[in-house]
Hints:
- The chain has 205 residues and is of the alpha/beta class.
- The protein has two domains: 2-170, Rossmann fold (3-Layer(aba) Sandwich), CATH 3.40.50; 175-204.
- Helices cover 47% and strands 12% of the residues.
- The chain has nine helices and five strands.
Amino acid sequence: MNSSKLLTTLEKEKIVRQKKLEKDKDNIKNYSWVLFFAGEEFNQELAGNQEIQPKINLIDFAKAGGKEGKWIEEKIKEFCNKTENKQLIEKKEYPIIWFKNIEKIKSGSSLEKALLPIFDPYQNTKSFSEEINLSDYILLATSSTRDMGQLSAPLTNRLDCINVETAEPKKFFLDKYFNWILAGSILLIITLLLVIFWPSKEKEE
């Protein structure tokens, strides 16, 4: 089931990171990808799972209102200063930063601009003037919709979509209206054929 995939992925991510650190602890670039799950069922599972709740640090964009990009920085710095998160990091347990309902982020907004370097695994090891290393966290994003077309394209390009088989890809103009265009084209061809080959009254006389 899709819901079980979320917890399995989180556990695998933790193991992969631990092994990678053992092999090359000085190389953390391209390390902290944002795991993305499209669909309301993943929002519900994360919110209802008591086992991982202590690890979760939530940023819900459905409740962001008119917040600016600076709000993202303040929230993440708040997470990084939490004693509970520091203790988890020492144990290599990887606290989770959950970016919830990212479909609410408007393209070109200050929130989007603030998230771009955070979602970039080549930049997020030295975030906010090199103060914060987000490779110490598992970055997780969810949307309440499976329609990828509702998400910001620059952010989507930086996400590792886990449930790609059930997420709906972004539809472009031809994708959305293909059936209508096809039906219209067929009707036009039939009309032209009738005009060309239908005998006129003058020829009959």
